[in-house]
Amino acid sequence: MVDPSNDPLASTHQTDDLADRISDRVTAEAAQDARPDDAAAAMAAETPLEEEKVKDEIDIQIDLLKEDDWTVRREAVMTLGEMSDERCVEPVIRALRDGDWQVREAAIEACGMIGSPCVDPLVKLLRDWDLRRTVIAALGKIKDERVLDPLIHQLRSDEFNEIATEALAELGSPAVPKLLVALKDRDENIRKQAVIALGRIQDSEAVDALIEMLKDKDWFIRLTAAAALEKIGDERGREAVKPLMQDPDLVVRMRVERILAAWKKKKTTANA
């Protein structure tokens, strides 16, 4: 029998096997080291594709705004609002002029979804008399302090003060500081609408200022201040309203009587 250790052919096979194993190990390690880079490369390749897909979708929705079917245009506007991309701002703003009121309403909501990028173009559109009501409503959907001064200014307008009041009330507590300042305005329209907005917001921060408004020279402002205090429900307001039972204006006295009765009933129900 031939000793394997002395067999040149067997020694060659062993050397080849060892070389194969080392080669396989090196190849496997190299492949493992390469995987993170490959994965990163794959992700990098996918990202532009995803961005391109989104851009394509925006273009599709913009094109749908030209359709004759108002339901298609409305859905396109809402989709653009949900995307909240800056490229959506201009087409959504244009949709505020749509011939169908339901599309215009959708555009108002879309402005609120997009938010701050819509503020500047909307404020510029306030110059357009025909579009102003719609623009005011859209500004009321955006939680951005830049909308406050333009909306407060619209309280001076007999034509648009009510929609501006609604918009400020919808903004809620962020509008309270500006409205408190508006309570001291010389223009009684500003004071009146500010009182109404504060009553709708129902922020207790306004109680002291509204109590002061119970002394206003305008009977309607005294009345709306009393009503606003009732809505807020602070006991300080209830006590402050009571002297208006002796108000020189009959309408104020009658309304305050009902306000106090409702307040008492509400308190009784709460304690039951």
Write up this protein.
With 272 residues, the protein is an all-alpha fold. The chain has a domain at 54-122: Leucine-rich Repeat Variant (Alpha Horseshoe). The protein has helices at 8-64, 70-83, 89-94, 101-114, 119-125, 132-139, 148-154, 161-171, 176-182, 188-201, 207-213, 219-232, 235-241, 250-271. It is elongated, with a radius of gyration of 35 Å.
Layout of SSEs?
Layout: H1 8-64, H2 70-83, H3 89-94, H4 101-114, H5 119-125, H6 132-139, H7 148-154, H8 161-171, H9 176-182, H10 188-201, H11 207-213, H12 219-232, H13 235-241, H14 250-271
Please tag this protein with its features.
mainly alpha; Leucine-rich Repeat Variant; 14 helices; 72% helix
CATH class of the domain at 54-122: Mainly Alpha
Largest sheet: none
Give the helix/strand class.
Answer: mainly alpha
Here the CATH topology of the domain at 54-122 equals Leucine-rich Repeat Variant
The H-level CATH homologous superfamily of the domain at 54-122, spelled out, is Leucine-rich Repeat Variant
How many H/I helical runs?
14
Q: How many strands appear in the DSSP assignment? A: 0
CATH architecture identity of the domain at 54-122: Alpha Horseshoe
Overall average pLDDT: 85
Task: Indicate the overall shape.
Answer: elongated
Q: What value does the Rg take, in angstroms?
A: 35 Å
State the distance separating the first and last CA atoms. Answer: 111 Å
Oligomeric grouping of the chains: single chain
